[in-house]
Fold this protein.
Amino acid sequence: MDCPPETSSRGDHGKQDYRGFNSMLAAGNLLRAHVPLVPKMRRTLGDAVIPLELKVTAARSLLSVTWEDGVVSLIPASMLRARSRAAQQVRADIEGNEHSFETVTVTSAEAIGSYAIRLIFSDGHDRGIYPWSYLREIADSDA
């Protein structure tokens, strides 16, 4: 499902539909995903604030997240890459191997159930899974 810029990727009856993520990124369009606010999800996520909308800018250097509480976060791709919890990145951090990710961009995104997003970066890193609570933690640390 391809969506032009500034339109939504949404399934029937307001159900979550992430199938358009990769095609929208490939087309250079803004990425949008709507996460429904349903009681079942509320119980699953507890008091966590969840995103209503995710967008990757056309330059792919920022992830814009509109949160349920009205806050809009602009998170640099370089920060997301540096804060990846993937084993490879955690090990590099433990060993003190510092890398600059200033030129890294988001090349693709994939939904992980209703609790997280997996980001793929231009440097080939494809193991970063960002649960909503961790994404918010990163966003708040950059504020």
Remarks:
- The first helix runs from residue 21 to 26.
- The chain is about 25% helix and 25% strand.
- The chain has a mean pLDDT of 75.
- The radius of gyration is 15 Å.
